[in-house]
Amino acid sequence: MGTGIAGVGRSMALPGSTVREYRRGGMVYRRLGQTDLFVSLLAFGSHTDPAYKRQVGSETVLNEEGQARRDRQIAHALDLGVNMIDTYENEGQLEPVARLVRPRRDKVLISLCRQFSQFVGDDIDRGAKLYGYVDMYRIYPGENPQVDDRMLEDWDAMRKAKEAGKVRAIGIATHNEALMLDALQQLEGLDYVMFPYNFIHARAGYSRFLPAAAQKGIGLVTIKPLAAGSIVTLDPRARQGSKPQNARVELYESKYHPVLPAVVAELTRSLNRLPGETLCQAALRFIYRQPIMTSVLPGMFDDYMVDENYQALTRYEQLSREEASALSAAKNLADVQGHRWLPPAYRWLHERWRA
Questions:
Q1: CA dist., res. 183 & res. 305, Å (int)
Q2: What DSSP element (H or E) covers 168?
Q3: Among 35, 58, 126, 289, which is most exposed with the fewest C-beta within 10 angstroms?
Q4: Whole-angstrom Cα distance, residue 283 to residue 156?
Q5: Which of 267, 206, 266, 209 has the alpha carbon at shortest distance from 233?
Q6: What are the pLDDT digits (tens) for 24-83?
Q7: Residue 199 CB burial class (10 angstroms; 0-12, 13-18, ≥19)
Q8: How far is the C-alpha of 344 from the C-alpha of 355, rounded, in Å?
Q9: pTM of the predicted structure, to 2 decimals
């Protein structure tokens, strides 16, 4: 079901779509598809802070300060009950994460994605050597509208790795709904799909994919829940210095579309609803409360992001009229701005995924 702002105060209601879950402390854990894995509703995304990156060969790795910050943030997230860490090899985080989780490996789910062109089987073997086994492994097949021969070859290797006990769950990540639908039919043993979803870019086309995924019991993991951090630019109460992941977006410059003062005023008033509440927290809570979603995978670059994202989860069942109004106002603001409210690298989201 496509969920635009008009339905922001409601959860998606698909027959048989509610994912099994349990709670421990303030964290919620939901079953990943038909597997025996229960993934924390808030997971730790793979992207690293660009302010601390340096290029080393084909990878961008964190400098010493940046790595120490990320290690501290992941450790804090694990203490809060987060149990899934997503790791891109081209972010240089395979070995650092392995060192960090080694003392509590049995309590942490490791999610990996092939980034380079090597054979999937070799990539899985590398992950299994580092971590003992890989909990969740996926491929990103690009923007092909359908499953092709290369993808089928990769999938065969992934299935064999799962049968051999090297991987516990296998899936795909894509931005293309046509491929999602084809994968449901073509990829035997598909456990989960990762795809972009947030309250602005929940597109009507999901009316085909989501019911089909629910019927097959496929796990759904949300990426881009804050549109690469760009939703922060719609929030007058955002923490000072907050900005999108890739570029600063200046909403109010005259060179961009003018912003209606009434829209800004409505948004500002609406955000004065709960002590310390931010639009990003409300946006995450919108996804947390969708019972069809297994987990949400935001990038977290600062200590406060870990805490705020967790705080939003502890209150995810509460969505007041004021919060719904704030999300609606943000949608109106994005409508006025057009695609320019997003960083240049993510403006494709506006056209491809907007409801």
A1: 34
A2: strand 167-173
A3: 58
A4: 37
A5: 267
A6: 989 999 999 999 999 999 999 998 988 899 988 777 899 999 999 999 999 999 999 999
A7: buried
A8: 20
A9: 0.79
